[in-house]
Design a protein that fits this description.
The protein is an alpha/beta fold and 155 residues long. The chain is 28% helix and 21% strand. The longest helix is centred in the middle third of the chain and has 11 residues. It is globular and about 40 Å long.
Amino acid sequence: DLGCGFGYFLYGAKHFGHQVVGLDTDDPYLLAVTNLLGPKKVQHWIKPFQPLPELPDGPYDRITAFATCFDQAGMDGQWGVKEWTYFLKDLKRSMAPGCVLHFKFNQYVGPGTKSGIGCKVVTPELIAFFEGLGGTFDKRFYRLADAPAAIAKLP
């Protein structure tokens, strides 16, 4: 789980028999709770155009990110296609064949976005990018089946 925060999702998934690993910043408050819950956690700050660290126990069948913050949604430095392309290509090395991505995005700003009801989850440019990979959106949720195959087609 990328940006796992306290590790609540990891805790639930582990309870249901999944092997889990989280990745998030080295915030002592978040880490203290994660340590209480018990899942493995890699401390790392995800930044644009910077590789991810080696992640233990991979490759993974599922990679999740809920309420992403690392992509700077709605802030200065909000990720675009170039940042996401780099990130996904780097993340691919941690994916098992057929790995499924599940991302829940925070609110983006930019062309086509509005506050309140009807707001866009991502910019139109990013919607086209993510849908072009073969994934589907359900409101703020994005799912990409067989992510390694889709990402392998990126330039």
